[in-house]
């Protein structure tokens, strides 16, 4: 990843006052952390800032001393013997008061040592430390932490948000539940221990394309406690539901991008059950999975130093006058200067059997057979329910969409016992293999017609659109498929989520996504309701990184 540089990293986004030195020549990381633990409830920003103010100078000096001892720079910077080549710091996202303290400390240290400053995106650092330590080339990354939950993939010099939480982060959702039980922060490890003694309890499972919603699950879990359900059962159901959702969207991201590598980041990633689910999913679909050791999953300065070293060697430093923090710093805003462009995965159907996100599709000359096979990572009761519901929904909504004038395959047979569908084979390839502005506009018009009939697709990605390359008069050239997440709704917000999912899939797979998304919205406006586009703007503003 890097040559022989040495970088001191400073982490200060929320609860961890942390400093570390990464030595690229030996690939070794020394981390010092003092963690803030609130007396009650969740993180209090003022208390967290006070903790950062007190402890960050301590861990920085301790780290510098360790660097001098380890790397033989005992003379100190007053002799010109500087132990590091650069200082890196977490620039965001995070709590503003904490970030400002970390940035001020980093600027002062860079001036004191007379070395360059590197501003690091905290969430990209979670991804990059996993990529570095795994040796993977081009992984999809699931970040699961207190304030965040999202899936990232690399495309054209940036990390793209393929899916994210639309309300609260997964860790915060767990903490909201544990505060209801008067359990001290952090709640995640306590839920994990209690869940080992519990049985499965059904809770709301909310996946929309590759986006997620955790707020309703947390509320339902609190209501279950109030209704007298055993706390162990509620904790078990909470984990199975939330982590099942995270694993499903990770699999959907792998299917969309054609990737075969997954890395995990974020403090919630320390949970053994989540790691077990992700490893099982990857094994089932023939992908590789890597979870860094716990010291790199929770917030830490080691990951800041590792990414800082890569950025420093790429010449990606920041002048002191331009080093302001950004508490809403999205990972897809970061120009990835330190990576060589990797080839993308295959986008064409290459055999008789095609592995999707949740089903195996066997392709024949005139029809396809779609089998929703059991997913090993999900609790059997939850898995059976979802497979049956989605098979039934796909058959029903596909047929209703067709009657509404939307080009879809004919449904020829359904077997709920085997969760299998036989459908007409339509098109020559997926949209992701043949994207044009004209075809994107057609998809948008089809979605508008679908919504006008009171239907929601639920997952209109570029994989779930089929294209007939040859243009024939009076015959459709673009078909919507895979309505497994479809349902009935006249709510403009539900319709807007379809557009959001489609836009995210374009952003994750296409070089000129902005132009294509604009074309889709223009075409939708010609046919669909203006209220849907108003809702789309509102949904975009709710993303965790806006």
Give the SSE layout:
Blueprint: E1 6-11, E2 16-23, E3 28-35, H1 45-71, E4 86-92, H2 96-113, E5 117-121, H3 122-134, E6 140-144, E7 149-155, E8 158-164, H4 170-180, H5 188-195, E9 207-208, E10 211-212, H6 215-226, H7 231-257, E11 261-265, H8 272-285, E12 288-290, H9 294-297, H10 301-313, E13 353-355, E14 360-363, E15 367-371, H11 380-403, E16 411-415, E17 420-424, E18 429-430, H12 437-452, E19 455-456, E20 465-467, E21 478-480, E22 487-488, H13 492-509, H14 513-527, H15 530-542
Parallel strand pairs: 1-4, 4-5, 6-11, 11-12
Antiparallel strand pairs: 1-2, 2-3, 6-7, 7-8, 9-10, 13-14, 14-15, 15-17, 16-17, 18-20, 19-22, 20-21
Helix pairs in contact: 1-2, 3-10, 4-6, 5-7, 6-7, 7-8, 12-13, 12-14, 13-14, 13-15
